[in-house]
Amino acid sequence: MYDSVIIHYGEIALKGKNRSYFENTLIKNIKKKINGKIIKYRGYFEIKLPDDSNLEEIESALKTIFGIENFSFCYTTKTDVKEIEKKAFEVIKTNKGTFKVKTKRADKSFPIKSPEFNRQLGINLEKNGVKAEITDPDYYLYVDIQQEKTYLYTKKISGLGGLPIGVSGKCVCLFSGGIDSPVAAYQMMGRGCKMILVHFYRTPEVEQKILELFELLKIYDPDIILESINFKNIQNNVIMEVSSKYRLLIYRRFMFRLAYEIAKKYKANCLCTGENLGQVASQTMKNMFVASQPIISEINVFRPLIAMDKTEIIQLAKEINTFKISIQPYEECCSFMIPKHPETHAQLKDILEYEDNLDVEELVKETIQK
């Protein structure tokens, strides 16, 4: 029976004096999903496994935590040649097929170097009737020699990588419920951001698909927040005052204003969108500039999907299980009362002229307070 899980991180190892902050944040995030004692060592963590541990649940949970590069269910023993050989044989007996030993000698005081220990352990195991294979083994026997103890395991399970959620601050994501924005939120989580999703709707209530997408993203961050804003009043005012070819951009500008108010509420460091250069009319280079300027001058606006191919975005949406929900039909705010061929190269001066006919500040204030 496995007695521990060892967790390795990637980018965190490159951090300098603030490395412990990243490590401690990752430990905190692990504890939100897994019960058990976590021991921090230099370069890795160990979770002690009780005898009644549900390994499938633990594996599923660890696969959803950003900052983990890989992890392994392990057998532990003393850092002693005879004890390692004894434990290695016990591990080998539980597996079928040929093996190859891969030793990592983190404890440099251990008397045998890794290549030599690979050979020695492989030969001794073969003497006990198991078959080693150098070129094409069925599996690897990993021997991780640390000063405190030695870990033996046969499988490395990939994690999400990236940075632990929380180390980069808070981010407000304009969340439409289409394919792109859930992926954008996911990408920003992977860069260490705590997410506040802001969804704009004009129907009597928030669409069920939005709530389902929110619950899916909650798998990665149990503390994720969803703010829903009824956009109907603003749209009705825009429709009365703005030429149809400019409405989409005016909508976007109001959304940025409202998202910025939400950012101030939660003391968020940035906004993000699911925009992708050239994908639709509002996402030309000129229109993306006009949509957010000069509204957002004191906060970053990130567009993590900006240069991705649509097929790449769809593939990632499928991997995180948002795709099937995202493609469900619904009334999207931005598509209401706009022409088939909206303006693709808008001039900021034209947009500002239209906004002069709207009580922008009052509309934002009324909407955010509802």
Kindly summarize this structure in a few lines:
The chain has 370 residues and is of the alpha/beta class.
Task: Please tell me about this protein's structure.
- There is one protein chain.
- The protein is α/β, with parallel strands linked by helices and 370 residues long.
- The protein folds into 2 domains: 4-158, VC0802-like, CATH 3.30.2130; 170-369, HUPs (Rossmann fold).
- The protein has 13 helices and 13 strands.
- The strands form 2 sheets. Strands 1, 2, 3, 4, 5, 6, 7 and 8 form an 8-stranded mixed sheet that branches. Strands 11-10-9-12-13 form a 5-stranded parallel sheet, sandwiched between helices.
- Helix 4 (114-126) links the parallel strand 5 (99-105) and strand 6 (139-145).
- Helix 7 (232-241) runs antiparallel to helix 8 (244-266) and helix 8 (244-266) crosses helix 9 (285-292).
- The protein is elongated.
